[in-house]
Amino acid sequence: MSKLARKPSLFILSFLLFHLLLFLMRHENRVFWYMITGIFLLTSFSYIRYSRHLASRRISQSIAAGLIAVILIVLFYTVAAQYIPDISYNKVMKTLITSGVHYRWQLMISLAVTIPLHELYFRTMLQETIPHPLVAVVLTSVASVSLFYWALSPAQLLAMFIMQLILAASFQFTRRLITPIIGQIGSVIALILLFT
């Protein structure tokens, strides 16, 4: 196998390319969401590197951990939104509209495709390659949030980082992709239902 085909090298090259694309398009109005969706469609190549971790938890434990992540994210957001106006539901929806999301159904369809690919890319290509669990959780969360640097405010980035920490920790615990996928999709759906 060539040096460029290894997970860390492939991740670094693709990650830098994605940042370059987002940087070049940063001043375009209402295209960020389309760019990020397209980027995660491109990450489907990470499936060729995916293999079930031998030390992963049972599926029932993984689903339960995903549901716990949903509860933690919803609780965090509900409390944080009380004190940080920049992450209120209305402000987040305004940010989404500015980035190119115009309808809730568009958000739901995009998330159904984007979230599993996002999780596959960051968990398979980055988090599983870092041997130290705490470093893996923090570094993966930073890398994930960094893609949204051009579209979100600092407060929104911080909130997203904390949510990504919860998701990365849940994956680190179960070693199954289903856990952060349930955590992320479930929390988005729960927050939409709670705040609309």
Automatic annotation (TrEMBL):
<feature type="transmembrane region" description="Helical">
    <location>
        <begin position="103"/>
        <end position="122"/>
    </location>
</feature>
<feature type="domain" description="CAAX prenyl protease 2/Lysostaphin resistance protein A-like">
    <location>
        <begin position="104"/>
        <end position="182"/>
    </location>
</feature>
<dbReference type="GO" id="GO:0080120">
    <property type="term" value="P:CAAX-box protein maturation"/>
</dbReference>
<keyword id="KW-0472">Membrane</keyword>
<feature type="transmembrane region" description="Helical">
    <location>
        <begin position="178"/>
        <end position="195"/>
    </location>
</feature>
<keyword id="KW-0482">Metalloprotease</keyword>
<feature type="transmembrane region" description="Helical">
    <location>
        <begin position="134"/>
        <end position="151"/>
    </location>
</feature>
<keyword id="KW-0812">Transmembrane</keyword>
<feature type="transmembrane region" description="Helical">
    <location>
        <begin position="62"/>
        <end position="83"/>
    </location>
</feature>
<protein>
    <submittedName>
        <fullName>CPBP family intramembrane metalloprotease</fullName>
    </submittedName>
</protein>
<dbReference type="InterPro" id="IPR003675">
    <property type="entry name" value="Rce1/LyrA-like_dom"/>
</dbReference>
<dbReference type="GO" id="GO:0006508">
    <property type="term" value="P:proteolysis"/>
</dbReference>
<keyword id="KW-0645">Protease</keyword>
<keyword id="KW-0378">Hydrolase</keyword>
<dbReference type="GO" id="GO:0008237">
    <property type="term" value="F:metallopeptidase activity"/>
</dbReference>
<dbReference type="GO" id="GO:0004175">
    <property type="term" value="F:endopeptidase activity"/>
</dbReference>
<feature type="transmembrane region" description="Helical">
    <location>
        <begin position="31"/>
        <end position="50"/>
    </location>
</feature>
<keyword id="KW-1133">Transmembrane helix</keyword>
<feature type="transmembrane region" description="Helical">
    <location>
        <begin position="9"/>
        <end position="25"/>
    </location>
</feature>
<dbReference type="Pfam" id="PF02517">
    <property type="entry name" value="Rce1-like"/>
</dbReference>
